Task: inverse folding
């Protein structure tokens, strides 16, 4: 019998299951290796080139999650399929985090096993570069960040440079592009990952509270301040603080921030003495700080202090190579969460997703996949996409349209390209800002 080239390692403490799996695998011409414990599995991995790992989760001594973690670290390109008798949301989440590409619940049918194996092998083929050697630069996942585009690779390269020092980082990008994900990666991939990471949405905390929330306050600083209290900065000591929507910080907060950046110390609200803090600041915004500086609502000196290292997270429409790996990630994530199985996607739907412009970026893509997984049976078809998406695509194909529609679409495109900067857009379009507004209002 001619063996397929794929070597599959199966790990289960139940010999009967191992035998059964092996019989199935043999009937499809896969070559199988059996291990009854994680220890045995690790030994086989060391000596053999394995193409797919199928592991049980609950095993005595060391469980399947430990093995999955080990494999993710030491054999990053190796696809992992897990088999469990006790599915739980928590298990699924842990599995997704460690990059498991497939999930089977006992008891499963032979057909289910076959398609899970095929999906896992196929997903990994797409995910890794042709040579199966793991390489940080080529790999499509970096922590939780998925992406195959050059733009994402550039972002990852900067993260690599800053993760182990405490340089201030400024992250710019449209809503839903993954700014917070990047901030977390900077913290968690680096050497300070065991210290706290504190995320503060400056836009969500009322302006009059932000100052005391961030820097703390002393007893008597204001009505209701009946004890001394630490703020987020003190809580993040030794680690990182993520200041999201930094454009929403008041001038009072800004001047305190400047002090932290310059002197590495904070003064609690109402206090006279400062205290040292050792915190890396990561700030983010999707608003135009340049504009705010001109209007004097953002301090220029703070801006320069914050932007020591700048990371620009490009909108999804400028890095369409990321769409397929992102779709696959979300398919798996929600497939497991709602269906307890990996849901497939029809090729024509994938083609549409690749053509769409994604104004809401990755968040929008994730929502659409989440919804589609809920709506579909086993395969996501056209009908599972929301109407506006189908409608938009009809427009972009060869349907003929009135001039004003085209004009409007083009104006919107230029606005997007300029980050909604009407002055710039007016310059490009050679019309004035008022006309832009009028045409959009029409
Ligand atoms: N490269 C990526 N890989 C995987 N998931 C991603 C990626 N980028 C973004 N996401 C997911 O998309 C969602 C939005 O990302 P995130 O919250 O980081 O965006 P954001 O830029 O901070 O948006 P906002 O400006 O609206 O706060 C999150 O659920 C995040 O996990
Ligand atoms: Mg955010």
Result:
């Amino acid at each position: 019998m001619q063996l397929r080239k794929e070597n599959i390692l199966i790990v289960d403490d139940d010999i009967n299951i191992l035998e059964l799996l092996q019989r199935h695998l043999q009937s499809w011409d896969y070559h199988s290796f059996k291990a009854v414990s994680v220890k045995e599995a690790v030994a086989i991995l060391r000596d053999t080139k394995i193409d797919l790992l199928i592991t049980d989760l609950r095993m005595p001594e060391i469980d399947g999650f430990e093995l999955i973690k080990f494999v993710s670290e030491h054999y990053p390109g190796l696809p992992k399929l897990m088999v469990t008798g006790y599915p739980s949301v928590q298990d699924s989440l842990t599995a997704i985090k460690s990059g498991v590409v497939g999930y089977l619940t006992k008891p499963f049918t032979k057909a289910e096993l076959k398609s899970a194996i095929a999906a896992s092998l196929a997903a990994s083929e797409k995910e890794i570069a042709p040579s199966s050697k793991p390489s940080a630069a080529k790999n499509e996942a970096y922590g939780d960040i998925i992406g195959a585009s050059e733009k994402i690779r550039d972002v990852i390269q900067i993260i690599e440079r800053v993760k182990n020092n405490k340089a201030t980082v400024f992250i710019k990008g449209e809503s839903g592009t993954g700014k917070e994900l990047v901030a977390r990666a900077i913290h968690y991939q680096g050497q300070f990952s065991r210290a706290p990471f504190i995320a503060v949405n400056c836009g969500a905390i009322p302006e009059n509270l932000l100052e005391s929330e961030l820097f703390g306050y002393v007893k008597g600083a204001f009505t209701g301040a009946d004890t001394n209290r630490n703020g987020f900065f003190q809580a993040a000591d030794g680690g990182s603080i993520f200041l999201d929507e930094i454009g929403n910080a008041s001038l009072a907060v800004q001047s305190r921030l400047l002090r932290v950046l310059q002197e590495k110390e904070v003064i609690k609200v109402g206090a006279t003495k400062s205290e040292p803090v050792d915190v890396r600041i990561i700030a983010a915004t999707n608003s135009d700080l340049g504009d705010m500086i001109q209007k004097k609502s953002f301090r220029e000196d703070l801006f320069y202090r914050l932007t020591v290292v700048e990371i620009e997270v490009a909108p999804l429409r400028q890095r369409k190579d990321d769409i397929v790996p992102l779709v696959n990630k979300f398919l798996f994530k929600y497939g497991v969460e709602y269906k307890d199985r990996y849901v497939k996607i029809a090729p024509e739907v994938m083609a549409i997703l690749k053509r769409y412009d994604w104004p809401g970026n990755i968040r929008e893509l994730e929502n659409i996949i989440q919804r589609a997984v809920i709506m579909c049976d086993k395969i996501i078809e056209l009908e599972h996409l929301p109407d506006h998406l189908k409608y938009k695509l009809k427009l972009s194909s060869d349907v003929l349209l009135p001039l004003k529609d085209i004009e409007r679409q083009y104006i919107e495109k230029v606005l997007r390209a300029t980050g909604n900067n009407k002055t710039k857009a007016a310059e490009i379009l050679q019309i004035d800002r008022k006309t832009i507004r009028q045409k959009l209002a029409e």
Remarks:
- The pocket of magnesium ion (ligand 2) is lined by residues 179-180, 244 (CB under 6 Å).
- Residues 127-139 have pLDDT under 50 and may be disordered.
- The longest helix spans residues 110-127.
- The two ends are 71 Å apart (CA to CA).
